[in-house]
């Protein structure tokens, strides 16, 4: 049996066709590790979203923004009860001007500020090329002052800025490409399995009548209904996760609500 046939045979039959397509779109967006929740927190216990814009693998604004929301929601699942913020760690490895989408950047700013106010604790831009400074000048007007003041530029060849990394992260856990000592790197299959476990855990919580959620479950709970999503992704069956690591989006309605009204097409 081919991997495509196997994937089709193991789809969750409880999902509508639109939900199944959304599941495949998210899986395809995740393939290169362009955005993922790290398997470690910073020294304050805040979840870390690693972003690698140079690893972009799709042209769909809608798919990219919806995957960002998916990752944001997953990071919120891993907040401790004494934490309300996360860390964004942006790795510019492989980045070029061709990686830029002003439209995606604008909508990312809207998502962050309209739906996740004060959720960003700090944003680290790691080794941005010189040319990025011009792009940053264009981006700043999209951001509120309290947001862009949380952004820090860090360069591996600058000991002073490198101290920011040392102050925020445990270097034994941080990826070597980001100034740490961990050489494990991004493992797509391991990430897919973790996302599947998280999705099941969140789904079980949302479906339960539990009045006292576990410490690491979302602060913001939503009803688990799932309306149709707008799709313009380039995803295909080949692009989805294998049956071993197939991930079901935990809350498709949440993704749809937080992208509704944005100019994504």
From TrEMBL:
It comes from the Eukaryota. Gene3D superfamilies: CRAL-TRIO lipid binding domain. Residues 222-234 have a biased composition (Basic and acidic residues). Pfam families: CRAL_TRIO. GO terms for molecular function: phosphatidylinositol transfer activity. Residues 1-24, 216-265 are annotated as: Disordered. Residues 23-180 form the CRAL-TRIO domain. PANTHER family: GH16843P, OS01G0264700 PROTEIN. This is Random slug protein 5-like isoform X3. The gene is LOC111276977.
């Amino acid at each position: 049996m081919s991997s495509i046939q196997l994937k089709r045979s193991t789809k969750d039959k409880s999902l509508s066709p639109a939900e199944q397509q959304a599941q495949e779109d998210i899986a395809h967006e995740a393939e290169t590790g362009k955005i993922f929740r790290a398997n470690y927190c910073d020294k304050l216990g805040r979840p870390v979203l690693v972003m690698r814009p140079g690893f972009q693998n799709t042209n769909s604004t809608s798919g990219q923004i919806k995957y960002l929301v998916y990752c944001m929601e997953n990071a919120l699942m891993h907040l401790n009860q004494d934490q309300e913020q996360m860390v964004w760690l942006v790795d510019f490895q492989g980045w070029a001007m061709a990686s830029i989408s002003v439209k995606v950047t604008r909508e990312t700013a809207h998502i962050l500020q309209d739906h996740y106010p004060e959720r960003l604790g700090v944003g680290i831009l790691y080794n941005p090329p010189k040319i990025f400074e011009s792009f940053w000048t264009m981006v700043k007007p999209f951001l509120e002052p309290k947001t862009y003041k949380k952004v820090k530029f860090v360069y591996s060849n600058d000991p002073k800025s490198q101290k920011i990394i040392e102050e925020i992260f445990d270097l034994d856990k941080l990826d070597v490409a980001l100034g740490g000592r961990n050489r494990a790197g991004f493992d797509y299959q391991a990430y897919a399995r973790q996302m599947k476990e998280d999705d099941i855990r969140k789904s079980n919580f949302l479906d339960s009548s539990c009045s006292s959620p576990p410490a690491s479950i979302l602060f913001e709970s939503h009803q688990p209904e799932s309306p149709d999503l707008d799709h313009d992704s380039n995803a295909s069956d080949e692009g989805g996760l294998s049956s071993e690591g197939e991930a079901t989006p935990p809350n498709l309605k949440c993704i749809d609500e937080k992208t509704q009204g944005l100019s994504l097409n």
